[in-house]
Amino acid sequence: MDKILPKHFQESIYQILLPNLQIRSINPRDPIQVNYIPQPWQLLGRGNYAAVVCHPDYPNYVVKIYAPRRPGYEEEVEVYRRLGSHPAFSECLYAKDGFLVLKRLSGTTLYDCMHLGLPIPQQVIQDIDQALEYAQSRGLHPHDVHGRNVMMHQGRGLVVDVSDFLHQEPCAKWNNLKRAYYWLYLPILRPLRLRIPYSALDLVRKCYRFGTSCKQFLSRIAIKFKYFKYLKP
């Protein structure tokens, strides 16, 4: 998997970025804290376990660095090993010492498209569907695929985050997003070209998470009820 990186880029990672970057994860349910990034490195994003940074002189690469004592690094390396090269996914070019160098994907997340009022063609949804089918054919289990983890670039769909693709438990996020796309977005929202505020999008996201939690809780209660009913003499 490891490929030869530009010498100055690799030196900047080991001599400037890694010794000086200050990140920490306080709660695994919350995004990590990024306290300091050495110049000229720039923060692109942060998740619950890792930060993604880039170097302005090397726009085709990103570096994903896991916070200390947070899991997932080995699993993500394995996911990229299985994916290999595919147009809808990034590609791992180098992995060592708790960080990955990935091919940078350009585009706008579907979440941001809704905020900006950008039309999302059906080709984007079809591309992502085909990409997830490809991942399944490689022995992976697409997981946590939602509006912030998929992008649109020049009318084509991309999958940004694959870190949870080894999780085998069912995940309905992508199917639910597709359902909302065909039932709500295409017939109503797209013709109106509405720009939806982030506050409204966040409210929808929180309501969805709450509804999912309630559904899981009720399912567990139902299972326990059936179990005790079975034990009842």
Automatic annotation (TrEMBL):
Single GO MF descriptor: protein serine/threonine kinase activity
Q: Which positions carry the signal peptide feature in this UniProt record?
A: none
Q: Which UniProt keywords apply?
A: Kinase, Serine/threonine-protein kinase, Transferase
Under the heading SUPFAM superfamilies, the entry gives: Protein kinase-like (PK-like)
Provide the protein name: Serine/threonine protein kinase
